[in-house]
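Reposting from the mailing list since nobody answered there.

I have sequence plus structure tokens for a pair of proteins and want to know whether others read the tokens the same way I do. The first protein:
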Amino acid sequence: MPKSLNPFALIAERWQPSAKFVERAALATVVMAVVIVVTGGAVRLTDSGLGCSTWPTCTPQSLTPTKAMGLHGIIEFSNRMLTDVLCVVVGVAIIAARARTPWRRGLTKLAWAQFWLVMSNAVLGGIVVLTGLNPYTVGAHFLSATALLTVALLMWQRSREGDGPVRDLVVRPVRQLSWLLVTAAGLLIVVGTLVTGAGPHAGDAHTVHRIPVDWREITQLHVDFVYVVIGLTVALWFVLRAVGGPTAARRRVVELFAVLMSQGVVGYVQYFTHLPELVVGIHMLGSCLVWIAVLRVALSLRERPYQAGAAEIPAQDPAVPAAV
């Protein structure tokens, strides 16, 4: 595609966002990724999962909810509209990353990856409705949103560092311990998703199929993974002190521990109070914060230095699909 016909190249010729603007745009995608998880949880916890009976329209005859559908239709449709807001925020991040000079191809790819994740998760959300809130598709919908949060956080991190080769700030065994922590936290989220799929909050007041396991037994497995994650967090803190690890990394570990403790309190409260909707919603927010804190710990143990002249805009700008 000739450069003159590429809208992103045309914008880059007329607008030069600052590095701070790109960073803030990336941070906005992180915030919106968390918001979409929490509001999606609100849809399920208010039994509004089938507030709109079909997809992509709300009813076979109407794009928007009708008066007869009541509050459930409004809640479900509002969550769908938040996806449009998310698309706008991601779109701003894409344009800002592309328009910034020098052009950072890796940053732009991360922005485009978010766009495709949003589109695929929107389709998956439609499948959730069309399958009558099948718990496996609901779980996949949540995990896809977590993947979006992961990419958004990576873009935010990259917006605050250079494009040089990754350089470890600690010895390799410590880095391996941090990735073991990330893996355990990832499994914790997956098992938590299974708890949700087997638990009482199905997303609709009528009978909805659940994962055929005892949710209390799965909850115990979930708690076991919590202890594993906490143990690895404490171990990493002591290891970082022993090897003289970066102060910033140790601070990230302390932040993670604080988030884990808070999330643990919420988890026990929701269990012993028989899963009240508000507390479950707070727990979903906490799961996002735990994942963010875990990733920040791992990312704090490496750096990417700036390289002068390493990221220059090529003479021939590629077509948009190639930049994805």
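The second protein, same order (residues first, tokens after):
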Amino acid sequence: MRLSTVILPIYRWSTEGRKEWERAEALGFHAAYTYDHLAWRTFRDGPWFGAVPTLTAAAAATSRMRLGTLVTSPNFRHPVTLAKDLITLDDVSDGRITLGIGAGGNGFDATTLRRSDEEPWTPRERADHFDEFVPLLDQLLREPSVTYEGTFYAANEARNIPGCVQRPRLPFAVAATGPRGMRLAARYGQAWVTTGDPKLAETGTPEQSVEAIRGQLTKLGTACEAIGRDAAELDKILLTGFTPDRPLQSLDAFVDFAGTHFALGFTEIVLHAPIPDSDFAVDEKVFERIATEGLAQLGH
């Protein structure tokens, strides 16, 4: 079991930003991720910085902790330009980048680049784009030159030299719950990411959430089996904060939560760094105790 954190890109680097990432490494987190959005939910009218520059700065400010996105999506990214950014990030960080990637949702990312007479992609259209985005990105990160013409994306002799520090490319952590996303996770992922069942976040129980996640793991296993891959090869990452559980209420609450999900097969749990006066407002001292003592309580 590994314990990681998400640091939302809301801080000016010169005042709080650097300190947040340095603190995450000092607390011993396996990885620190950030969101890759143009804006997000209640944070839309406040500071919100770009994920790639933030991770570049974080790579220079840290030395051991892995870094990455949770998650990047095709909503406003193109595989060719994203590949160039990722190869650069992997170089600056000396091979510490993980790409969390998903199909995207209905939020501001889906509308900001659209004309007023354009409708956002439907869930099916997002899945269609994702189905093409991931294989092309995989190819771009593995090969020095790629030419491709698809339904949604093209690459004309796209050069990516020298490639990733991590070989054959940096790892993908694929966020998926539906059958098409699960198939992509099975084929291209080094990890699978879930936030649980969103329908249970407000009105469900922790027990219902565990059952829903167990069902997702079964679907992942089926997708892996279909291509002859052992699902145990994939890391299983749970991004917390979107289930009925409250694992950051206390150290004991975290230990119970983590133990339950470790038993399901998860290998990494990701906690949001505290943000006062938000959905992620938790006691800083409890958060630090969980970071430094939580896995030890589990025997990991």
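Reply #1 (J.P.):
I read it the same way you do. DSSP finds nine helices and ten strands in the chain.
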